[in-house]
Specification:
This protein has 121 residues and is mainly beta. It has strands at 9-12, 15-18, 32-35, 51-54, 70-73, 78-81, 98-101, 117-120.
Length: 121
C-alpha cells in the first residue's frame, strides 16, 4: 500500500520502488527504467504514478543498463551494439543484419553523446 512506502517512492505490486518524474529516460538505478505509469489502482494505492521498475531485455535509460560492447540509444530506450561508422570495413553490424549509424546516442545521465551504433536496416 502506498502509505507503507517512504517518501520519494511508490508502491508497485506490493514493493516500494524509487519514484521518478515520469520521463521514460529519467535515470534510475542500474538495471531499472522509469515507467511513467508503474502503479495501478488498488485500495490505498495511487493510480498511475511514475516509478523505477526492472528493465526488460534490451531496455535502457543509460549505458549501465546495457551489456558489454553495447550502448543505450537513449531516444529509443534500447541497447545496441557499438560500431565505427568511419570504418567501411567494420563488419560488426553486417553480422547482425544491421547498418552502422553515426551519432545515434544522445546526451543523457550516464550516456556519451554522439556514438555510433548498429541499427536495423
Amino acid at each position: 500500500m502506498q502509505g507503507d512506502c517512504p517518501p520519494s517512492s511508490a508502491c508497485v505490486d506490493g514493493e516500494c520502488r524509487l519514484a521518478c518524474d515520469g520521463d521514460p529516460f529519467t535515470p534510475c538505478p542500474e538495471g531499472e527504467i522509469c515507467d511513467d505509469c508503474a502503479t495501478s489502482s488498488c485500495p490505498g494505492c495511487l493510480d498511475c504514478v511514475a516509478a523505477c521498475v526492472d528493465a526488460g531485455p534490451g531496455q535502457c535509460d543509460d549505458h549501465d543498463d546495457c551489456g558489454e560492447g553495447q550502448l543505450c540509444v537513449y531516444g529509443l530506450g534500447i541497447c545496441s551494439v557499438e560500431c565505427d561508422a568511419d570504418d567501411p570495413g567494420d563488419s560488426t553490424c553486417q553480422a547482425l543484419g544491421q547498418d552502422c549509424s553515426p551519432c545515434q546516442t544522445s546526451s543523457c545521465p550516464g550516456c556519451e553523446d554522439c556514438r555510433d551504433v548498429c541499427v536495423p536496416i
